[in-house]
Amino acid sequence: MDHIALGCLLFAGLATLLHFASAAIAAFRARRGAAPPAFATDIPVDALPPVTILRPVCGRDPYDELTLRSGFTLSYANYELIFCCDDANDPIVPLIRRLMDEHSHVNAKLLIGRDTLTSNPKLNNLIKGWRAAGHDWVVMADSNVLMPADYLQRLLGGWRADAGLLCAPPIGCMPTGFWAEVECAFLNTYQARWQYAADTLGLGFAQGKTMLWRRADLERAGGIRALGLEIAEDAAATKVVRSAGKRVRLVDRAFGQPLGLRSAAQIWSRQVRWARLRRATFPVFFLPEVLSGSAAPLAAAGFAAFALDVPVIAAVGGLAVAWYGAEALLARAAGWHLSALSPLAWMARDVMLPVLWVQAWLGNSFSWRGNDMHLADAVAGN
């Protein structure tokens, strides 16, 4: 029993040290990105390379006007903004046309049409934009990404000689209600934290919210259709870049995603979808996710305390305070959302994580914006 208890104690200690280390890395990266890129102050704005921004749109979300308008107000001299929509009758179309009329000085266009070259509806929506892009640097950015005025400067400033792709994890902001707080807990001090840690160790992977490509790199890999080799375009992007001997990099200070009101069902559905995608595209890396939250270390610490005749409540409570204290320090240092509800949201997330992991293995289908998608069929189709 003592050997088992010591093993549990060792696991809890190592997991906690890893948690602290990943939080410190993420905080450092976010704070480092707070300063403007060196080139942005040394090079005149009109000398920066021209960039194309592709934004796929579908349906309406509460913060669409805020996020889509932000693409028209960038402090960048030479960029084009291309909106891609499947259907001319989509409810988002009138908003985009109005924004284009209000910002007629911005080189913006709306492309409408449906491609069916891949099993990924979002990627199919982007294909026409990729074909129409007029510049060598191309950003693919989801419609719910909030772009600050220096959005493009920050992206280009994060590019490195060994990069084949630059991404930014979504940072949840402006939540309304407890379940939106839980989504912040997933996006920020959990997913973004692990992404920054992986990137710092040279194991960066793509996130589809914002992707900066050098057009020639993707064309050499087969063009935008190469991103349809996996059901998720970011998983395909990761594999495309690594196969070319290059790295996926992350921008140091990522961009906000306004959340608004969320329900428990919405959070659960979204997290199950992402978990199943990770399980299907990177199964080896998905396996240890069941141990990635606080549930397993806290359970191990409780068992070790009981076996070693140490007060269980004190041991588990002390570890929980240290664990979530690290998340609070990370959120504060990075400037991410932090509220009185955050600790409860972090605990709810960690209770959900093992259940989500099991659920990911129990199905091969999910729904995304009204599209029923099947993992096995999509992989077979490619």
Automatic annotation (TrEMBL):
Q: One Pfam family from the UniProt entry?
A: Glyco_transf_21
Note the topology in the membrane: Multi-pass membrane protein
Superkingdom field = Bacteria
Major subcellular location class: membrane
Annotated metabolic or biological route of this protein: Sphingolipid metabolism; Lipid metabolism; sphingolipid metabolism
Q: By its UniProt entry, which Gene3D superfamilies does this protein fall under?
A: Spore Coat Polysaccharide Biosynthesis Protein SpsA, Chain A
- Give, as one word, the top-level EC class: transferase
EC number(s) in its UniProt entry?
Answer: 2.4.1.80
Q: Which GO terms describe its biological process?
A: glucosylceramide biosynthetic process
Q: Identify the InterPro entries for this entry.
A: Ceramide_glucosylTrfase, Nucleotide-diphossugar_trans
Keywords, in A-Z order: Glycosyltransferase, Membrane, Transferase, Transmembrane, Transmembrane helix
List the molecular function annotations (GO) for this entry: ceramide glucosyltransferase activity
This protein's GO CC annotations: membrane
Question: What is its subcellular localisation?
Answer: Membrane
Name-wise, this protein is Ceramide glucosyltransferase
Species this chain originates from: Hyphomicrobium sulfonivorans
